[in-house]
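Researcher: Excuse me, tokens okay?
***
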Amino acid sequence: MFLKLPKLLRFLLIFIPSLTFLYVFMRVVFYMVFSDPSSPLIFSDYAQAMWLGFRFDLRMVILMTLPLFLFGGIKWFSPFKSSFFKYFWLLYLSLVFAFYFMFYTIDFGHFAYLHTRVDFTAIRFLENFDISTQMVWESYPVIWISLGVLLANFIFIFLTYRLILDIQEQKDVKVSISQGIMFGFVAFLILLVGGYSKFSQYPLRWSEAAFSKHAFATQLTYNPVHYFFDTWKNGRVSYDKKEVQKYYSLIADFLGVIDKDEEKLNFKREITPKHIVGKKPNIVIVILESFASYKSNLSGNPLNPSPYMNDLAKNGYFFKNYFTPSTGTARSIYTTVISLPDVELKGTSSRNPLIVDQHSIAQDFKGYEKSYFIGGSASWGNIRGMLTQSMTNLKLYEEGDYSSPRNDVWGISDIDLFREANKALSKEKEPFFSVIQTSGNHRPYTIPDDSYGFKVRTDISEDEVVKYGFQSVKEYNSFRFMDYSVGHFIQLARKSAYYKNTIFIFWGDHGIDGRTGEHTFVGESSSNLGLGSHRVPFVIYSPLIKEPKIYDTVLSEIDALPTIASMANISYTATTLGRDAFDEEFDNSRYAFTIQHSSNPTIGLVGEKYYFRTKADGTNEALFDIYSDSPLEDHSSQNEKLLKKMKDLTFGIYETAKYIPYFNKQADVKK
């Protein structure tokens, strides 16, 4: 029967299933490499993910072969009758395969790095191409990966060419016009069904991958090429004033707005300090790269990775339920400065020239000298524009301004950054407001030769560090070095004149999505609720603090500047969504908003006990018990009143966060 078919159909009958099953095999490899043994998929979820994934893979192969199917059956364009078109179609198929395989390679590396499939937001790395490529070069075996990619492409070309030759040598079949039409029509229907992939009004869509509350099931389902272009097509964000007005009353009450105006959407408040620690203290904010709570001593991690931060927390204020809205450093800096979650989908808000000029509470630190220290370039994520536009008279220190040597792609080392900052602050006119942003706890995890006494641990195994939330011994030592650098900085500061009147505030720019270790709540892991990517320590240390305290209060990164202003005795104008952690007026409504960026982002709200999560289009909503041993169990039906409250607040914050940046320019606030 096979030999009675036209040669083109024989070729496609072998080529399409073979390539589809190659992609299915790569999905199996993805599962084996990245699945979390501590939270495995149930068999039904695994089977559903593989079945849906197979259909996405089949669609991509059909799309690849569609031009050949449409034109290759015409004898003048046939790879079996024309020498020129034999090589033309071989070149075409090889180029498409190379393109697909490139996506698979990048996707594997992207997931290993960020624990998410590659989507349209990855294009932000191209905006800092030199830095991104250098980081990749220093972090991955690029030469070996490149050789592997070349080998895969060579094998594909060889096997495809052999298949064309083998079928070309087979006997031709005489087909009448009516038979040709019948064969073509049936083949077209088969390809149409395979590409459409459903017997319904609508075809298989990317949203069907979100069939399970287990996050990894969704990740396993995606085809990387399909998913990237789906998110590219649907990835823009814009505000809807009617939606903002719909939730205005709720959000105005949440923020404590006195002069409510639903038509003009007034969010402006004049705030007085509620928890004064000093009259005009210096402020030093230290934003630590990837300082996830579960990796630190403050979560009970037995590997002792952060003893210095642990000591500061014991002697200051420690907020153990502090959450960043999202992952990504540029997003975190935006959130810190503007007191808004970054809900921009295409790139980051810092890269949007329409909204870099924002009112910031930092502007109300009048009479303060302002400075910002970063080890590398402030052009990364275009944070330079956002910082200089939103913090007037800012002294920006970056790579090239220091005498310390460059350590790796991220600039000078963390310990040198702290030494440089201390040197500059010791000469600064008081009071000052300063931010130090570290970046060393980041691939390639380079520890400098001159580490001022830091000792790398070599007496610990890979299995041991993985057991408690680290990906490798190298990452573990990098985390330890970041903490050691903090301790070194505080030692230097204690010898300075500015120390006695300074409040030091530390938090992580974001957590890390991944396996969080045996010592944490089950829900922290990325294969469950993924809270490990949001929860970071928030530590306030100062010689001005007389009574150290641990707070259970749920806080968001958007609350950082309002809280700092309160301690510094600063009255300020609030126009965004941050609230003072010490203002008792809000103690009955403490929540932290979260967002996982995609074309249909997952948004949520962390409360004292429950975590509400949903897709932005309203699908997949659920209420989870954060501290349950079965964190993916939905508690919505038992808590309908709480569900509605958290759902409304989640969408209210989301819609408002899209709207405010376009009406929060400094000139607007002064009106």
Observations:
- The chain has 19 helices and 14 strands.
- The CA atoms of residues 305 and 480 lie 5 Å apart.
- Residues 83-114 form the longest helix (32 residues).
